[in-house]
Amino acid sequence: MLESLQRRASLANPSDREAILAHPDAIDLPQAQIDALQVFVAESAGSIQGFAALIPREDGDLELDALFVEPDTWRQGIGRRLIEHCVVVARQQGVAAIHVIGNPQAEGFYRACAFEHVGTTDTRFGIGLLMRRMV
């Protein structure tokens, strides 16, 4: 169910569509993340509207490993609420920051959620933005 949401959201983004069609294996939510309570779901009226996943990093911080929202609910604050929930979780765990490798088209969203641009990295889909939010 969550992977289907991830696929819909990825295919709805014109900058991701071609890459996702070429690499369908990129749509993956490991069961281990769910079992480890690292996945957070946003629901409304019994319907899943989005999800986020946080995973630990070797430096002790957390990585936002996934953030996907149903395309027909984009720009309604669901992604921002998921980010804020991740910040609460990070604070409870005593970490200093949440990191994300963001799609360049999502930079404005992440900046609006208090992430700062700290660099770039090559991904199999092109350049990814290294971003960080102090918690």
What does this structure look like?
With 135 residues, the chain is of the alpha+beta class. It has a single domain, classed as Gcn5-related N-acetyltransferase (GNAT) (Aminopeptidase, 3-Layer(aba) Sandwich), CATH 3.40.630.30. The chain is 35% helix and 35% strand. The chain has five helices and six strands, in the order αααβββαβαββ. It has helices at residues 2-12, 14-22, 31-35, 78-93, 107-112, and strands at residues 39-44, 47-56, 62-69, 97-102, 116-123, 126-134. A six-stranded mixed β-sheet has the order 1-2-3-4-6-5. The termini are far apart.
Largest beta sheet: what is the strand line-up?
Answer: 1-2-3-4-6-5
Distance between the termini: 30 Å
**Average of per-residue pLDDT values:** 95
Radius of gyration: 14 Å
Helix/strand order: HHHEEEHEHEE
The CATH topology corresponds to Aminopeptidase
Summarize this structure briefly.
With 135 residues, this protein is of the alpha+beta class.
Helix and strand arrangement:
Layout: H1 2-12, H2 14-22, H3 31-35, E1 39-44, E2 47-56, E3 62-69, H4 78-93, E4 97-102, H5 107-112, E5 116-123, E6 126-134
Parallel strand pairs: 3-4
Antiparallel strand pairs: 1-2, 2-3, 4-6, 5-6
